[in-house]
Amino acid sequence: MMDTAQRHYPTHYWSKLPDGRVQCDVCPRQCKLREGQRGLCFVRMREDDSIVLTTYGRSSGYCVDPIEKKPLNHFLPGTPVLSFGTAGCNLSCKFCQNWDISKSREFDTLADSASPETIAAAAGNLGCRSVAYTYNDPTIFMEYAIDVAQACAEFGIKSVAVSAGFHSPEPRAEFYRHMHAANIDLKAFTERFYWKICGAHLDHVLDTLVYLKQETDVWFELTTLLIPGENDSEAELQEMTQWVVEHLGVDIPMHFTAFHPDWKMLDKPPTPPETLTLARRVAMDNGVRYAYTGNVHDGEGGATYCHGCGQVLIGRDWYELGVWNLTAGGVCNRCHMLLPGVFEERPGTWGRRRKPVRLREAAVQQRVSS
Known about the structure:
- The model is unreliable at 1-5 (pLDDT under 50).
- This protein has 370 residues and is α/β, with parallel strands linked by helices.
- The two termini are 30 Å apart.
- The protein contains ten helices and 22 strands.
- It has helices at 99-102, 116-125, 142-153, 169-176, 191-198, 202-215, 234-247, 273-285, 299-302, 359-364, and strands spanning 9-10, 14-16, 22-24, 32-33, 44-47, 50-53, 58-59, 62-66, 80-84, 112-113, 130-133, 158-163, 181-185, 219-226, 254-258, 291-294, 304-305, 312-317, 320-324, 326-327, 331-332, 355-357.
- It is globular, with a radius of gyration of 20 Å.
- The longest helix is centred in the middle third of the chain and has 14 residues, at 202-215.
- It folds into two domains: 9-53, no CATH class; 58-290 and 345-364, TIM Barrel, CATH 3.20.20.
- 25% of the residues lie in helices and 23% in strands.
- The strands form six sheets. A nine-stranded mixed beta sheet has the order 16-15-14-13-12-11-9-8-22.
């Protein structure tokens, strides 16, 4: 295994061009680089006629979160997840709420380093059922994420990707072979928004969603941050949710979350709660069975309801679970309807805690209960 002190990790998703440049093929951006140049993500760089990853083994920090914070409401509810990211991003969203990480050009922000085996041991000792590759998009540090996922699998710990879904097909397939769950940011449903505000393209993200649905066993949920005047019109919500039902089915959970001004979008007001309520209603009217509101206190919008008999299956107060009316395997205890997702007989008890951790200490400490 590579020493994490070695910063430049060899990769294989690249190709040489006739003009002497080397093209990075990890995402649809296909950055074409001369020697020493970095891609837009900043962490993949041309070195000696190939593309290397400059942040392998280095993180912006580690934290134990509730799985609901990813957000995933149908994947091992109530359990703790060890979350980490690196630096950089292959999108350029003007509203980025992790901009200090994703837009970082200072490697001093990578305050903690760890091998995949250290991360897996720490996750196990901390009682985490899963590890999440988050804060910035794991597409750009996929080699590190895959190695961590393989190390975690030896401990029975699952892997969760939090991603914008802006992948190229071949690396995407390799990456998701190692993932058990994902939350994909469906940032809007217009090409205008994706190009002008994120510097990306909608069709690549939709292709990833169809791929996940049709060609993998990965459990995934969708999140849309609703920004006033940009992607929150009822017409766009109608089009988006109709597409989800037609192409992904009625059982993919959708999370509509509240925007707050950040990064380069300080001129927009916070999302009114009624906008989230509207989005949830539109989704459910169009057939989405599990639509949620987020970043607001909304007991109704945070709860999971049985699509058979209508009773509350999982009650939530922010990230704290309350009502639990599921039997083993995610079955309604009243009408015996199956709730899609990954469930156990009892929920975890982690609650809403957020616990920053030092990996090397956690890797050797005694295992704690979740």
